[in-house]
Amino acid sequence: MKRIILTLTIAFFAITLAFSQVQPFKYQSVLRDVDGNILANKNVGLRISILQGTAQTMVYREEFNKSSDEYGILELSIGTGTVLNGNYLTIDWSATNNQLKIEIDMNGGTTYSLLGNAPILAAPISNYAVKAGGATFPAGLIMPFGGPTNKIPVGWKLCDGSEISRTDYAALFDVIGIGWGAGNLTTTFNLPDLRGQFLRGMDGSAGVDPDKTSRTAKYTGGNTGNNVGSFQEDEFEAHRHSMTHMEGEVNDYLGGSSNTFGLSPTYSSNHFPNILSSTGGNETRAKNVYVNYIIKY
User: Fold this and answer.
1) Which of 70, 116, 142, 169 is deepest in the core (most CB within 10 A)?
2) Number of folded domains that form the chain
3) Of 21-30, 203-212, 238-247, 268-277, which gets the smallest average pLDDT?
4) DSSP letter, residue 231
């Protein structure tokens, strides 16, 4: 069996993906025995490791249980197996000497034998764009997304105020901390909650927002005042509606500015329903369209 394992033919295909996000990439293997015969519909166990650098440090490992097709072809999506070590989303694809280590159990179990190592000649370009130096899409970046929530790309979370783990999402927690909410105060924190709301640039020292010091936290422990993540209710700026052109008519109705009952002229929607009656809808808003706001983690 060992001779069969060592003579399996392997082929690697690094897929260039259309999206600028961390994505799996393809591995394809043709299973053959020592005589070159195709092993069709053969169930095998595979352990895949990604190694980096001159020391070939293992940064990620996963395993699969798969069957070859009628032509002996076995196809995997690296990054979608059962994770054993590491986090595929945090792999630094800018590192040098990336290698794929493949181990196999021909009986479909987990007693693996080394099949071989092969260089990843072209790290997935979209993954490199996301992870190279952490500069292209840094953790904490908020973007409008034009699709539904079930289409949110890998590496992004919906800005819905959810509590998430401080350790599982350490890179995001390092950036936003508890600014949007402290979660359970110990092991979780809140994502931004941007559902149904507009975004506003923080005032800082600009002096544009006169109420910046009274801003509140939307979730317990979140930022208040002149800080990112603080919340502000809707409000009308103080104003008055002038109706001096009606003064004569009001005075006539009430009997002058000092009438028999000693009342000053007042305005009433009962007396002038076409002028003082309410109008409008449920909120003050500009024309708008819906998007889902998402945040990079």
Assistant:
1) 169
2) 2
3) 268-277
4) B
Is residue 241 located within the same domain as residue 220?
yes
CA distance 71 to 1: 20
With contact defined as beta carbons under 8 Å apart, do 32 and 44 qualify?
no
C-alpha 145 chain-centroid distance? 9
Q: How far is CA 225 from CA 5, 172, 205, 213, 231, in A?
A: 65, 22, 12, 4, 8
Q: What are phi and psi of 95, to 5 degrees?
A: -65, 155
Of 144, 135, 163, which is closest to residue 295 (Cα–Cα)? 144
Confidence of residue 22 (pLDDT cuts 50, 70, 90): low
Residue 100 Cα to chain centre, angstroms: 28
pTM of the model: 0.50
Token reading at 219: 């979730």
What is the CA angle 1-27-155, rounded to 5? 135
Are 217 and 77 in the same domain?
no
Q: Encode pLDDT of 109-129 as tens digits.
A: 999 999 888 887 655 544 554
The secondary structure element, H or E, covering residue 250 is helix 247-254
- Residues 281 and 143 reside in one and the same domain: yes
Range of the domain at 85: 2-131
Which residue, chain included where needed, has tokens 């060592």?
6
Q: Which residue has the tokens 């005042």?
A: 225
Tell me which of 98, 116, 131 is where a domain ends. Answer: 131
SS3 of 165, please? strand
